[in-house]
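Subgroup meeting minutes
Present: P.N., E.W., G.H.
Scribe: E.W.

1. P.N. recapped why we're keeping a running log of single-chain structure predictions: easier to compare across weeks, and new members can see raw inputs and outputs side by side.
2. G.H. added today's entry (129 aa).
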Amino acid sequence: MSATRYRRFLKLCEEWPRDEMKKGRDLGTFLRQRVASAFREGENTQIADPEKCDQMYESLARINGNIYRQRFPRVRDTSFTGVTVEECKLLLSGSMQTMDDDKKSLWKTIMERFSSKSPEDAPEKPSEK
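Output recorded in log:
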């Protein structure tokens, strides 16, 4: 029976789409890694809780098959902010990660916003002896 479960999970992994824009954060890649670690011995892996394994597979298969999207269709393809699907994909993609690397600390941002000089330009206080 483990062989059947293993093959079903492999088929699901093949069908699950990968998003190349989200390297390191892609759900499809994460799913493949989890299946590989859960079925280390391939078809010979012994499943401790077969019911839980089957439930997990059925849940993932429903998500992959867009069952909930068909059951609960959206009226519009935007959020309450008015951001479109394409804009959301751009924001969640890895291209925004480069902006995070350049982001200043919260303290520096607050200091720049509320002072006339930036914190780097402010003279240092003499140390007390």
